[in-house]
Amino acid sequence: MFFIFRTNFFMKENKYYTHLTFFIPFAYVFALGLFFSEESQHTQVLHRDQTDETKGWMQLIILIYHMTGASQVLPIYMHVRVLVTAYLFLSGYGHFTYFWHTGDYGLYRLWHSRMRHFPIYWRSHGNWIRRLLEVLFRMNLLVLVLCLSMNRPYQFYYFVPLVSFWYAVNYVTMAIIPQVTSSSAEANPLQYLYMVLKFVVLFSIVTVLYMSEVFFEKIFVTRPWKALFVTTDDSIKEWWFRWKIDRYSVASGMLFAFAYYLLRQYRIIDDNNHSNLFSRGLSLTATLVSIIGLGIYATFAFLCRNKPECNEIHPYISFVPILSFIVLRNISGLLRTRYSTFFAWFGKISLELFIAQYHIWLAADTHGVLVLVPSYPVLNVIITSFIFVCIAHEVHHITRILVKYAIPSDWRYLVRNVVIFFLILVPIGFHDGMF
Predict the structure, then answer these.
(1) d(C-alpha 328, C-alpha 292), whole Å
(2) pLDDT tens digit string along 45-65?
(3) Does the global pTM surpass 0.85?
(4) Who is most buried in 7, 88, 207, 289, counting CB within 10 A?
């Protein structure tokens, strides 16, 4: 099914944007999402059900945006840019939260452990190492298979390289000395300062890379990882564009997670129950400020004149609508503890949906759409969407099964699998000029 877009057996057609073709499915999807809602067992800000829900409705909007060719409408384009930024923001938030609370940077400790103590070490710290590899495996399995079978560069599926890269940055930031965790910071409050300094260094490095495109290219076109960041014409321009437009997104998510922990730690907010986060007066003020924040970005999206200019400004103000939405979504205990099961279901398979759309839903390298039922556009969308979503769900399910075998709990089998992976990868790398 992934080879549909390369065969002439099925018809393809160009995208034709109208306001109706974009906003009617938009309204229909949100009506369904609001209909299927229920009470969550969690009460914390950005709990798992809520983040799955948020990723779900954002992904559905992005799919409608790609299907209808709405990128030609600048205000819609800029709002979708916020959705991509928000996904990276939530990724940074979630991974930072895990690292902060577990406090087990397995690879660093492994370096300082003796091999004769390795089995003991693995039993106590192996879960963290396995999770590190599991996350990368889940992110990249489908893309790796598609790159090899379809002869596509890794950058063709730009979002997966983006989230994988920033996940690695998140890990390095937390694992590098001095290592700071929630438990160590509670024991020694001075460590909060160390964490702040890490953020200063992280934002500074990102800014320096942005200010010098030549320096950026020298880093990312270095072998052997050059093949991960260039397109088929050996250009790094696509990676440069994708990286710079969301360069602060993950770091902002990490910083928000850190600030949120401090607010909880010092009892400034209490989200362990179904009550509002703040007092009545403060809640009304925060709500008003958040609505204004959303209005400011919407005004910017409608007033900016061209994409290059808007894209340059976007990284500096994208946090405004994201934080505004988080406040509006969580300030009320009633809203915070309810979520849409419909959107959350799609949120769980959001990455597979993003990748699979290139080969099942869309055609001609995303410039057109697949046609299974000619002359009946609505029926065609319904059928192709059903096939597309079912395949994405099954790929997600298969990946969850395969990860248990690819990343086993026994370290000996894990090392064996890693060795086999590199034995397969190295010849392919030589063939493609990686080394």
Answers:
(1) 11
(2) 999 999 999 999 999 999 999
(3) yes
(4) 88
Q: Helix 118-150 crosses helix 411-431 at what angle (to 10 degrees)?
A: 30
Q: What is the pLDDT of residues 85-127, one digit of tens each?
A: 999 999 999 999 998 988 755 544 444 444 445 555 445 455 5
368-371 and 362-363 beta bridge pairing: antiparallel
**What span, in angstroms and rounded, lies between the C-alpha atoms of 104 and 130?**
12
For residue 428, pLDDT over 80 is answered with no
Calpha distance 241→186 (Å, rounded): 40
Residue 114: both structure tokens together: 């003796």
Distance CA 81, CA 307 (A): 11
Interhelix angle 319-330/249-265, rounded to 10 degrees, is 40
Which residues pair with residue 39 across a beta bridge?
Answer: 338
Q: How far is CA 411 from the centre of its chain?
A: 29
Distances (CA, A) of 42 to 47, 197, 277: 6, 32, 14
How far apart CA 172 and CA 206 sit, in angstroms, is: 14
Residue type, 404: K
Q: In this structure, are residues 253 and 54 in contact, taking their beta carbons and an 8 Å threshold? A: no
- Residue type (1 letter), 320: V
